[in-house]
Amino acid sequence: MATTAAPAGGARSGAGPEWGGFEENIQGGGSAVIDMENMDDTSGSSFEDMGELHQRLREEEVDADAAAAEEEDGDFLGMKGFKGQLSRQVADQMWQAGKRQASRAFSLYANIDILRPYFDVEPAQVRSRLLESMIPIKMVNFPQKIAGELYGPLMLVFTLVAILLHGMKTSDTIIREGTLMGTAIGTCFGYWLGVSSFIYFLAYLCNAQITMLQMLALLGYGLFGHCIVLFITYNIHLHALFYLFWLLVGGLSTLRMVAVLVSRTVGPTQRLLLCGTLAALHMLFLLYLHFAYHKVVEGILDTLEGPDIPPMQRVPRDIPAALPAARLSAAVLNATAKAVAVTLQSH
Amino acid sequence: LELGINFDHIWQKTLTVLHPLKVADGSIMNETDLAGPMVFCLAFGATLLLAGKIQFGYVYGISAIGCLGMFCLLNLMSMTGVSFGCVASVLGYCLLPMILLSSFAVIFSLQGMVGIILTAGIIGWCSFSASKIFISALAMEGQQLLVAYPCALLYGVFALISIF
Fold it and tell me: Which of A91, A119, A147 is the last residue of a domain?
């Protein structure tokens, strides 16, 4: 750092006699301090140092010209004006340094162009991948191909958000802390990103051959089944229908993901661990999405009934706890009848 | 013209939105003008107000986030980039049919079967026009459906505000 400071100092004095005065001044140490601070952020290669150097030389020339114009006023005002000039120059340099650092960080982290190749798809491809996500392939002897794209999964997550919002609105869900939109987005993106990362971590432990991008794509397309089930069952409130779809459609998409993972993992314990976790999380998420926003409907219906209901009919709330089929069918009929009554009332 | 508001262009863009089958001219999006979209957003909020829903905040919030999302997506999907102003302008213009929907909601409730069909039709109309303009301005042939779907999601959220 000392070596690079010296040429900068030399260049400074070369920029004009006005700058030389600073180094003789006691406060000249201030400019050297700034110099070091500027040097601090060149943590990269020497290219960056040279680039920084050239840029700073150019800036200092511009500054020197501006300072020359101001210097005359400063001299006119005497010593007080001189110190004012210095503080202004110091502030200016701090601002420039900060701005440079911020723009470099921004161009590094906000460069979304790295994601560009994952969005290069055609409608036919997306359509075929959507349909394939529901078809489990039995061939597990060698690794199955996973399309590494992000357009489909991203759109499916957003679709799930929209369906959730629709479901929340139709069931009049009231979120106490936070907003409806925030909850929906948080739930869906949290599931997609969180479970993908978790399964990727498990895959790393179990020595499975899958990259993070592929895991994101796989889980994203697995949400297609969830979208279908929720779209249908948020509009037709039949519990038996939901369980049927949960097993069929949810099961199909889970089986597909499991088959892909099994084809990429070696060893029975690892396969069991990985696929068991994924299957459990995927199926439970669908269950959660359905019942988290469905109970509210039943709560409202219960309060609308009044005191003259036989205790049997209070059962609907306990359905998730898996009760005998007789009560289930009675409750299902009740729930549908009540839902119809409520919709008729509200019109 | 002193204000930079070119009425002829605004009228042309409005017509492009209103005739979904009319082929869009790629060059009309060259100057981004936000005067038209601002007026449409205000009109949308006003029609919602007439229906008794004071939700200006939601409208602006969702339009801001939606524009940002579409901006990122279109930049990733197109060969040439696109500016934020252009995206905001196109999405704002294509909000015009949604104003028809919310003004319909002032008088009739949208929660029956008629409402659902009408809503679906209007969302389709908005997203079809928006994707048509984007495709012609960014020269992305064959990807109209891929651009139309996120627009449909965005306008669907707007429609949700109108209905509930």
Answer: A119
Domain coordinates in residue numbering, chain B: 31-163
| Cα–Cα distance measured from residue A40 to residue A49, given in angstroms and rounded to the nearest whole number | 10
Q: What total number of domains does chain A contain? A: 2
Decide if B142 and A165 are in contact by the 8 Å CB cutoff: no
How far is the alpha carbon of B30 from chain A, nearest alpha carbon, in Å? 23
Q: Min CA distance, A120 vs chain B (Å)?
A: 6
Q: Which of A13-22, A106-115, B66-75 is predicted most confidently?
A: B66-75
Which among B109, B143, B157 has CB closest to A122?
A: B143
Please indicate, yes or no, whether residues A184 and A71 belong to a single structural domain of this protein: no
d(CA A106, CA A103): 5
Residues A133 and A275 in one domain: yes
Q: What is the pLDDT of residues A247-299, one digit of tens each?
A: 999 999 999 999 999 999 999 999 999 999 999 999 999 999 988 876 554 55
| B132 or A25, which is more confident | B132
Residue with tokens 């009760």: A323
Q: Which value does ipTM take for this structure?
A: 0.88
Question: Measured between CB atoms, which of A112, A122, A346 is closest to B72?
Answer: A112
Torsion B62-B65-B68-B72 (CA) sign:
negative
Same domain, A247 and A299: yes
Instruction: Tell me if A123 and B142 make a contact (CB, 8 A cut-off).
Output: yes
| Contact assignment for B76 to A158 by CB distance below 8 Å | no
A-interface mutation test, from B146, B162, B164, most A Cβ less than 10 A away? B146
For range A106-123, the mean pLDDT = 78
Integer Cα distance of A266 and A143 in angstroms: 10
Are A331 and A234 in the same domain? yes
Crossing angle of helices B144-163 and B96-107, in 10° steps, is 30
The pTM (predicted TM-score) of the whole model is 0.68
Indicate if A112 and A139 belong to the same structural domain.
no
For A111-145, give the DSSP string: -GGGGGGGG---HHHHHHHHHHTTS-----SSPPP
Contact A122 B72 (CB under 8 A): no
**pLDDT for A301-317, tens place per residue?**
555 554 544 455 444 55
Q: Which run of H or of E encompasses B115?
A: helix B113-138
Closest-CA distance of chain B to residue A319, Å: 29
